[in-house]
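Priority: medium. Attachment 1 of 2:
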């Protein structure tokens, strides 16, 4: 599993839209599998789960993106997983890092 965390400032909706669009356009096999949004008490949280096919691992990968805003700061947490061939140990995790690097380039 690969993880990326950042603190950002800006327009929440524009950031979410840019990240969604960029991830989906990064691969022909990328898809938005699920989404959830929460609002309350001056805070908001958006969760997005993406999948794509990994040629290096010959399987599918997932990327979970969470944006949380309270006040002016937007906190981003993203985790990618999948792409491993091992039963007890993880092998071939390149796809996870590559999927996450797609998000990092969009920031």
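Attachment 2 of 2:
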């Amino acid at each position: 599993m690969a993880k990326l965390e950042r603190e950002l400032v800006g327009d929440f909706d524009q950031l979410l839209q840019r990240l969604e669009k960029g991830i989906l356009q990064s691969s022909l096999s990328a898809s938005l599998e699920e989404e959830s949004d929460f609002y309350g008490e001056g805070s908001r949280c958006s969760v997005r789960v993406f999948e794509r096919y990994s040629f290096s691992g010959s399987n599918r990968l997932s990327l979970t993106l969470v944006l949380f805003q309270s006040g002016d700061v937007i906190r981003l947490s993203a985790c990618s997983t999948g792409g491993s061939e091992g039963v007890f140990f993880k092998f071939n995790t390149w796809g996870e890092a590559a999927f996450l690097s797609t998000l990092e380039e969009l920031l």
